[in-house]
Amino acid sequence: MLLQEIPKKEDIISAEKRIHDYVHRTPVFTSTTLNEILGVNVYFKCENLQKVGAFKMRGASNAILSLTKAQLKKGVATHSSGNHAQAVALAAKLSKIPAYIVMPQNAPEVKVEAVRRYGAEVIYCDSTLNAREETLKDVVAKTGATFIHPYDNYDVIAGQATCAKEMIEDTDHLKAIYAPIGGGGLMAGTLLSSQYFGHKIPVIGAEPEGADDAYRSWKAGKIIPMEFPDTIADGLRTSLGERNFPIIQEHIEDIITVSDQEIIEAMRLIFNYLKLVVEPSGAVPFASMIKSKERYKGHKVGVILCGGNVDLKRLPF
Fold first, then answer.
1. Shared domain check, 159 and 142
2. In angstroms, rounded to a whole number, what is the distance separating the alpha carbons of residues 172 and 300?
3. Rounded to an integer, what distance in angstroms lies between the CA atom of residue 316 and that of residue 264?
4. Helical residues (DSSP H) of the chain, grouped into ranges
5. In the chain, N or C: fewer CB atoms in 10 Å?
6. Does residue 191 sit in the same domain as residue 164?
């Protein structure tokens, strides 16, 4: 995807209006005690409190609401380890259309149950990207449903951009925004909102060490697909999208990778001081912020808590 084809400022404003009745305007939280401990004033955009428990509801809703009547009639399909799956399922339910969700066999059961609760059909596949894509092709061929890509989609990117737009509007004078990178939809949207609405606030990408394809791709100047990811952050195990990578190349300030132990410690701090439930992927940006805290000592930074769908029976601390 060429940079001149990316969502424009007007596209993000239109997306915000389009999805207004489908999503929450999530709050921004801060903790005086946590700020004192870190020496940084951290403002958390709580997408763990979003519908379906993750930012994915924004992009999925915008993509579905942008379809034609003929497309809507045949429904939508996607592949996802969980949060995008839930978002497509709920957005489809609200739009009163069918949804077919391909999920890997190792997807967290709490996410699979949520997808079914929203009325979507779950189709299991092996736990590889190739298996997801091949199974999805079969589903689309049989149903005629429209594929809503989890992140490599113009309308999804525009929808995800509304998250950072809200955060910028609700929090003054941020010195930086930390956001996760999985497929890159939220990151691309965050970067665009920073450019359009935030006077080009530096955006820092956060990635697990065990799924660091974005960091390696950024350094290499070309997409290096993720193979055999190994991280507790299941939502960030996927590879970068082609539409997202040019935006990341053009605008990202830095990418900071963190270990699973650093992710777990960030989760613990969020649970302890903010009293918020976050999944491992949702804690990765905060873990990256803690790792680089000297960079913004005494300043205000934003951190996107991208999701809260964790199995409470399997907390890592």
1. no
2. 9
3. 7
4. 9-18, 32-38, 56-65, 69-74, 83-95, 109-117, 129-143, 154-170, 185-197, 213-220, 245-251, 260-269, 280-291
5. C
6. yes
Question: Within this chain, do residues 87 and 196 fall inside the same structural domain, yes or no?
Answer: no
CATH number at residue 232: 3.40.50.1100
Provide the whole-model pTM.
0.94
Residue 102, SS3? strand
Contacts of 217 (CB under 8 A, 6+ apart): 223, 224, 240, 245
Q: Tell me the mean pLDDT per 10 residues along the chain, length 317.
A: 77 98 98 97 98 96 97 96 91 98 86 91 90 95 96 96 98 96 97 97 98 96 91 89 95 98 98 96 98 97 94 82
Spell out a b/e string for 39-51, using b for 16 or more CB atoms within 10 Å of the CB, else e: ebbbbbbbbbbbb
One domain for residues 190 and 201: yes
**CA dist 213 to 107, 121, 241, 269, Å?**
20, 31, 11, 27
* pLDDT at 306 (0 to 100): 96
Q: What total number of domains does the chain contain? A: 2
Residues 191 and 48 in one domain: yes
Specify the pLDDT at position 117: 95
158 and 252 together in one domain: yes
100 lies in which domain range? 57-147
Q: CA-based angle 156:162:167, to the nearest 5? A: 145
Going from the C-alpha of 133 to that of each of 49, 125, 146, the distances in angstroms are 30, 9, 14
